[in-house]
Amino acid sequence: MDNQPSSTIDAELSFVPARAGSGPELVIRYDGTEPPTDLFAALEALGCGHVVAEPPPRSAIDWTTPDPRRGTRYTIASYVATAHLPLSAAEGGSMAARAATLASDSGVRVVGDLASPAPGSRVDGDRVEGNRVETNRVDGNRGSRGDVEVAVCVDAHREPALVAAVDGLARCIEREATELCRTNTYRGRTCETRVPAIRLVLLVGRDQLDDLMSTISPLAAEAPRVLGAH
């Protein structure tokens, strides 16, 4: 993406799957004058690599106007900056799902495949309307001896990330659209809000239970629960 001056640039994270000649990667688009440094640090701690902030293009620098807020003799106008973080082919989907959670927690918008279910997905299609709760039995097969059922609740916008993260590790056998009550405090005022959420029951082999719990815990709105074993 070419750098272009802009008055308002919202930071956003997207995931680019592996394609011919290149592996999967995370792409962060942000305002170069206000880089999301908290997200950069969190992604580095996650193991996604170090992000170097992109310097401003020549067209964004006004050498004739001082910037008293930054204490510089020049002003830098907002400009679009882009960071690319290559991921391994083996862990790309799982790493991207965790990165999406970190982005949301940092106030960075998640777009693309991480923000909406893939067309034809078995676990999309239910909607939350008011306080209505809908339950969808995704897979009637409750598994075989040695399988474990795990319940997990996620904010609705994080469901696609969780589904991508557990692909090949577990399968969804039940899905329920519901709501969560959140208490928020801002400038001394407390209010409650209700947010759309999804409760899933996942079926996983006993030998992969620990891997599943470590994968879904960062995405979960509540601590995942083991419902029982077959």
Describe the protein's architecture and organization:
There is one protein chain. The chain has four helices and eleven strands; from the N terminus they run ββαβββαβββαββαβ. It is an alpha+beta fold. It starts with 11 loop residues before the first strand and ends with a strand. It folds into two domains: 12-113, no CATH class; 118-229, Alpha-Beta Plaits, CATH 3.30.70.120. A hairpin with an 8-residue loop joins strand 1 (12-16) and strand 2 (25-31). The protein has helices at residues 37-46, 92-105, 159-166, 209-216; strands at 12-16, 25-31, 61-62, 75-76, 80-86, 109-110, 134-136, 147-155, 171-186, 189-205, 225-229. Helix 1 (37-46) packs antiparallel against helix 2 (92-105) and helix 2 packs antiparallel against helix 3. The protein has a five-stranded antiparallel beta sheet with strand order 7-9-10-8-11. A four-stranded mixed beta sheet has the order 5-2-1-6, covered by helices on one side. It is elongated and about 75 Å long.
